[in-house]
Amino acid sequence: MPETHLQSLYLGAFTNSDSLAILCSKEGTIQAISQTLAEFLRVESSAIIGQQLLVSQTSEAPNLEWLTEATQHQKQWLVTGRISVLGNFSGFEKVSSFFVKKLTVDNEIVGYQLKLEKANALQTTLPQNAWLQLFDDSPDGIALFDESLKIISTNSAFKKLTGLHDTAIATVAIDDVVTIAGSFSDWLSSAETLAVQGTLKGNLGVQTSISIRVTPFDIGNHMYFWCFIADLSHATKLQQKLNATLSHFKTLFENNRDGIALTNVQGNYIEANQQFATMLGFDRDYIIGRHFAYFNAKHSFELTAKEMQQFVDSGFIEPFEKQLQRADGSITNVSVQLFPHYDDEDTYSGAWCIYHPISAEEEKYRRQKKRFEMLLEKSIDAIAYSSFEGIIEVANQAFCDMVQRTSAELVGMSYKEITPAHDIQREESIFRDQLLARGYSDVYSKDFELPDGRLVPVSIRTVLIRSESGHPEGVWSISRSNEQRDRLVDSLAESERRFRSLFSNSFDAIALWSPKDEIQYANRAYLELIGYSQEELRDLDYRKFTPAGWEEVDALMAKQVAERGYSDIVEKEVLSKNGRRIPISIRASGMKDSAGNIIGSWVIIRDISDYRNTFKELEHSQNLLRQTSRMSRVGGWELNIEKQEFTFTEETYRILSIPSSYSLTVKSISKVLDPHSESMIVQKVKEAFISDTHQEVELKLSGFEPERWIRVSAQTGYETGNNKKYLYGAVQDITDFKQKEKTLEFDKNIYQQLAFHDPLTKLPNRLLLSDRFEQTTSQAMRDKKVVALIVIDLDNFKQINDEYGHPAGDALLKELAQRFVSNVRKNDTVSRLGGDEFIIIARLDNPNDIDAFAQKILLGLSEPVKWQDHSFNSSASMGVALYPKHGEDFDTLYNRADKALYWRKHHEKNGYTLADQSESS
């Protein structure tokens, strides 16, 4: 490889380094910086390259003296100081030290590499005494020595390891107490990594195995070295303690009564104790490697993905209950507690799962507890529990709503804080004594104080809870707000006033009779109807003004009132005081006391004389209209604009399939139509009313299967003698017509399906494919995209078809057709031309996308196809032509793709070939 290429590779590796690094010439000119340093300084690399690198090792101005002194040092050394460049870029002030490495060729310095260290904020703020304390308290032995290897200073741990005292240290060199293989001085000057194992000549001649690490630094043109010594025998003791701890953990793990298992981040078990295996009835080896969900019972509770992510982020999740399915198919209930597991880099790597089996007794207790909690939370009564001293510990939602505070606010609060002063003394003196004497209080009234100062009147009862030793422990309170009761009392008084007004001024005759046929009340209309005064009625019963012949009707009404509390509406006659027979409609309704006994009967009477006359006049006309409407299947309607209420003919009720008792308000009738038809009729009715024009619309009724359709006409009319508008029209059942119309449309769709689609796979055929090709290429030309025309031939279809018959071949074609469709985008087209030949037209962003697209199609065919008791493995060969590269019309692209397919089939099946690849080979 040429030298220039090697240099480019090395420079690329340097600039992409994760280090904060600078490469400079031996004169100090910056040649390159790492991308990490550029991002750290927030500058472009080109702005730094070529600048002169300056270093300040003291508070003096930056200079280039470090370059002239560099030859005095070994290959790599640490420099404490500040870096700057002539360009005065900010960011270097965050650097407090850096390592310098010489770059040499044939032992001649050609440049330097600097690896920068970020300034340690703690180092710049701690006083010198604090650093000395950290140095002296270190568990490792630390010594400072100079270039002559003479020890200058040590910490307490070093003195303890060597047995040296301050007076002896002044005359000792580092290699007097430390022994390594070879000369310590030679190792220090030539080693690339200043870390090695050796022995320490300790007190009383004891040899101690140690690890040695040396860090050089330069102060005032002199080299100094920190030497860190770790006692390896101490590490061995720690390892022994660790092994003992692990042994204890393993004993606890294996002998725990709960099932314990460890999952990895994917949820697969990587460890499980024997108790968990016994709990499931499987061997431990069978459990390891399987996903935890494999052992879940059907419909068992499981954490959602969101809950699991919260556990990973926070390291905590509330215990939950689930069901596991044992090897024998039985179900076991468990409670689960999860604990996070972290790797050596403190990264989440799985979860410890502790499974506690729930016994039948414990399950019974849990159900009872759940029922109690549900009763407490769902109760419409306000319930709270407090200590005997009055500190609230539990409050249900009804209590929180009543006092307008949250549960978090109430728990820990004293009852006195929400009770006005005038109730506190009464509660503590009277009702507290009742609690202690009999365990519960009378129901009494009090007030609770809301946060805004308003008072809520309530009825309350308290119940005392004692400990096992009989001492008062806590108090349950059950409260109900009296606000609603007070409102009901006021509402009742208002209702009574309204009733009296309605009773006195009603157009209907209303009276109350006692069971002894004595009049209790009678309104004005009743007195005017029969011609008697209130005083005269007191001496009469209702039989005195009932003509002969109506006894059976009266008896039936009395029986109905006694049995069900009210009578049917019946028509009969009454005799007025002047002897005139008056036709009436009447209904009786029993009035009961609190015990359910009938203490009187209300009767409501309406004079129907005018109605009888009008009815006779209209009866003939209505019969004629009814017969005509039924024969033509046309109904009529009228809309009162002011009341927003319809009037229907009998045939209209039948057409709409609603009873005659159905509400005829606009809102109710709109529910008969489906939502789209509802908006259409509103628009047409408005248009007819505003423009005085005749309107017609076809509407669909709601809730019918098969569908029901009607045609509605609408036009305006005017009431006689004034200009008040109303709307009227006709309703016609057109379901049969719509069904015939729908049948014709269906036949048309069937024809189009047969004409443009393959009958077996339902994919587009050649006729529809050409149209899809034109659409796709036109859109691709506008968007500057590429279109791929892919011709596909199944590799082993004939073999399967010959061996298993046409049903197997047809099943294979239909299944693979669906796989082609599922592996392309919505706007792409999959077509079957016949036999086992398919074509795909797909739009791509660029020609390079064809490989991923084709591999996805092939991968979709790799899964076996199941048919009856057989399993078929199938693959395909594909020829590909690209628009506009290989042609701009369908026939050209198809021919070139077909030739590429032919080449692929005769060279290497189960793959694809581009048109130009097959033509050039």
TrEMBL record:
Q: Which SUPFAM superfamilies match?
A: Nucleotide cyclase, PYP-like sensor domain (PAS domain)
Q: Domain PAS, which positions? A: 245-315, 495-537
Please name the CDD domains in this protein's record.
GGDEF, PAS
The record, for NCBIfam families, names: GGDEF (TIGR00254), sensory_box (TIGR00229)
- Which residues does the UniProt record annotate as the domain PAC? 568-620
Origin species, per record, is Reinekea marina
GGDEF domain mapped to chain residues: 785-917
InterPro entries listed in its UniProt record: Biofilm_reg_signaling, GGDEF_dom, Nucleotide_cyclase, PAC, PAS, PAS-assoc_C, PAS-like_dom_sf, PAS_4
Checking Gene3D superfamilies in the record gives:
3.30.70.270, PAS domain (3.30.450.20)
Name the UniProt record assigns to this protein? PAS domain S-box protein
